[in-house]
Design goal:
By secondary structure, this protein is mainly beta. It has 4 helices and 28 strands. The protein has helices at 7-18, 264-267, 273-276, 322-326; strands spanning 2-6, 39-45, 57-59, 63-69, 74-79, 82-83, 95-99, 111-116, 121-126, 128-130, 135-139, 149-155, 166-169, 173-174, 176-181, 184-188, 199-202, 205-208, 219-221, 236-238, 249-253, 268-271, 291-301, 307-313, 331-334, 349-354, 378-384, 396-406.
Length: 407
């Protein structure tokens, strides 16, 4: 279905249709030469593999191709009450390539509007915009106590009176939504929930998280019953100031120089499974490129130099930490302060670091060695070097619940 609206009628209709959004289209005055009206023959997907698929609606963010005539003079394309970004290089007399706006319309008309450069002529064409099911990316912190407020990050969190936004914790127990925006939900954790995935429901569908709330899969160190005892440094253990997220945690604190200090006592632990009494079994058996190391962290005092170096070691590695300096094994190098010069958290947060990025040397350069499954036995954390100069600081870093899990 299509309608052609010209001159003053075009402006009037658009004013009526989009008035709720506060948008006004006025006809141009003067003796400007009339332009040919645009025509639409059909609309297809921009993906070449789907170029033979004609569409009458598309999801927000989809790229589409408008095929027609007299399209070279089109200056604006609107979907409902949302203006699309139009690249002149993607507009020809017979085609327009455009992305459907990623903003949910305030007023749904189920029409597309093509406005000529003279602002006098508008083509109104029937076209629907689909809103995706919610996207659940992550929780700011995956370990939150019953009754406390957790924060979920993602997209398309639509709270509609006819179908309120809902968050279900493990066991299908609903949480109480405190507030929400299109990309964030603050929700109170209900009483009695355990570990597992969460589910977010909206008017447009439901999505189950890939991450686990209070993830208990494959915990390597929780500093309660799973410690680094037996290593030269088992880590300074704390459970107060700050309060723990789930029992004990390891505390890194002390002075760090701008160029990086070798301060093992204050900023390291060595889990050597042979000395710890653990069996010779891998920490993780899945494909490492599809996994990530995760942990909770609370940076109480600003961290402004050196990197957190994470090193996996074979079962045979025990009684020596020479691998830290000689680069025998590749490592993950995490510098959260690098971009801004400082890093401090507002309480406990969850960190995710891809296992595919365990390919560095201690100075931050790319390692010649590769992470292999036989190295997935022991684990050392050490705040040192990283190849980036910061400034003298006295950070206070707390870490808990170290685990390797699927992405």
């Amino acid at each position: 279905m299509k309608k052609i609206i010209s001159n003053t009628l075009s402006a009037l209709l658009l004013l009526l249709v989009t008035g709720a959004a506060g948008m006004v289209f006025q006809a141009c005055e003067g003796n400007e030469e009339d332009m040919p009206m645009p025509e639409i023959f059909y609309i297809r997907k921009a993906d070449p593999a789907k170029s033979d698929s004609l569409v009458a609606h598309a999801f927000m963010g989809d790229n589409i191709v408008i095929i027609g005539r007299n399209l070279g003079n089109v200056d604006e394309v609107w979907f409902n009450d949302q203006k699309a970004g139009l690249n002149p290089n993607l507009v020809t007399p017979t085609t327009i390539i455009v992305s459907v706006p990623q903003v949910i319309p305030s007023t749904v008309t189920n029409y597309m509007y093509l406005i000529n450069m003279n602002k006098k002529d508008t083509l109104m064409y029937s076209f629907g915009v689909d809103v995706p099911a919610p996207v659940v990316d992550r929780m700011v912190c995956e370990y939150v106590a019953d009754g406390e407020t957790s924060v979920i990050k993602g997209n398309y969190f639509v709270d509609d009176p006819a179908s309120p936004l809902t968050v279900l914790f493990p066991g299908n127990i609903p949480g109480t939504v405190v507030s929400s925006t299109i990309d964030e939900i603050q929700v109170t954790v209900p009483t009695g929930v355990g570990p597992g995935q969460i589910e977010v429901k909206t008017l447009y569908g439901k999505t189950r998280s890939r991450f686990f709330f209070r993830d208990d899969r494959n915990i390597i160190l929780n500093f309660d019953d799973l410690t680094a005892a037996g290593g030269w440094r088992s880590g300074v253990i704390g459970n107060s100031d700050p309060a723990g997220i789930s029992g004990n945690y390891v505390r890194f604190s002390g002075a760090l120089a701008a160029s990086g200090s070798w301060n093992e006592d204050g900023f390291s632990f060595n889990l050597w499974p042979q000395a710890n009494g653990r069996p010779d079994v891998p920490i993780y058996t899945g494909d490492l490129k599809d996994a990530e190391i995760k942990f909770e962290i609370n940076v109480v005092e600003p961290w402004e130099s050196s990197a957190l170096q994470m090193i996996f070691t074979p079962y045979s590695t025990t009684g020596t930490n020479s691998y830290i300096g000689d680069g025998s094994y590749p490592r993950g190098v995490w510098n959260p302060w690098k971009e801004t010069g400082t890093f401090k958290t507002d309480g406990w947060v969850t960190v995710s670091y891809p296992m595919s990025e365990f390919n560095y040397s201690g100075d931050g350069s790319v390692s010649a060695n590769k992470l292999t499954p036989d190295m997935m036995r022991g684990l050392t954390f050490f705040v040192w070097n990283g190849g980036v100069t910061g400034k003298d600081c006295n950070p206070h870093i707390c870490i808990d619940n170290i685990r390797v899990v699927p992405k």
